């Protein structure tokens, strides 16, 4: 509803007695959803069928877009987004008259983008990625005299952005400082990155941490969207999954224990830390997440305190360095059963106490109840059903009103006493008498 309001500024939308209204369009979208403060005032451009609002923020490891085509939310981007990224870098380089790397110009860029074109062509039925290269479709004779989308976007940026920068010297200084900081960081990690890549190549053929599958997301195979990697806790759990998995579409990456808490660290840790380096090499997200090898990244840990901690450490890694993996719906938590309830005729796998109680009533007084304390306790034959077509995956969803920085600092920062106080105030004491009978 809010997206419709942002894309139709000035229009009031009433839904369930709540009013959705935007006066400034995509400028409001960016202001309301931006994590942290912009390094300079948001630049807002409106020209015909094109609208964009953008600025830079700190702590963003890449550029991030809220992009739309004719009101359709193109979460996977497409030709309009590529045209903006390329055109923006080109205009900035021409303005400063310096050969800055496009990646240095765009790192930390956050943008809301909307274009309207005639009869758009999307790359899939979900309409989340634009494939059109022109503003209008081909003529009946196969020719196309409609302007290129890339040229159209660049011309608008050249007029408006160049003019804005000439009139706002403070923005010019802030933007240049950000680009130079990005350049310095890139050069600092260049040597580490090269060594880490060479190290990853050396162990890739003999890497016991990764048990790869045969079909990947970055291929044209019909099953590429089924490609999944399970990030497991130790060799015991990975052993059961490896024996149960579908070798065509399911890969397994085994952690050796609790990974590093990377909160507040720079991206150098991705290359200096062997485990993180091997993981990002397995995912193939070093250069760009568009090269991602698996559609589903599934964090698979034990249902205990240590397992929860490892889960949080992995989420910290992804949110700190690759938040787009979460935003684009690639990261999941695998739900595995806590209990097995069975008699001689029936077996039930239960994911909660409520399911356990219900299963016990069905199996009768002679029911045998097993509490799974770790994934390694589940046999490969049993595990096959938990990672099959009906496996329970809980998507990791980043709400618009949650800032990544604030979220991570609270749960993974050094505010131990603050978290302890929260736990004490919200502590629940439950009756364990039923569990004691098991």
Write a structural description:
Strands 8-10-9-11-12-16 form a six-stranded mixed sheet. A five-stranded mixed sheet has the order 3-4-7-5-6, sandwiched between helices. The chain has a three-stranded antiparallel sheet with strand order 14-13-15, covered by helices on one side. α3 packs parallel to α5 and α10 runs antiparallel to α14. With 438 residues, the protein is an alpha/beta fold. Helices cover 41% and strands 17% of the residues.
Q: Determine the N-to-C terminus distance.
A: 49 Å
Give a short account of the largest sheet.
6 strands, mixed
CATH class label of the largest domain: Alpha Beta
Average pLDDT over all residues: 86
Q: List segments where confidence is low: pLDDT < 50 over at least 5 consecutive residues.
A: none
CATH fold-level assignment of the largest domain: Rossmann fold
User: Roughly how much helix do the residues carry, as a percent range?
Assistant: 40-55%
Q: How many structural units, i.e. domains?
A: 2
Principal-axes shape call: globular
Structural class: alpha/beta
Taking all Cα atoms into account, the compactness measure Rg is: 25 Å
Number of helices: 16
Give the strand order of the largest sheet, numbering strands 1, 2, ... along the chain: 8-10-9-11-12-16
Percentage of residues in DSSP E strands: 15-25%
Under the CATH scheme, the architecture of the largest domain is: 3-Layer(aba) Sandwich
Q: Work out the number of β strands.
A: 16
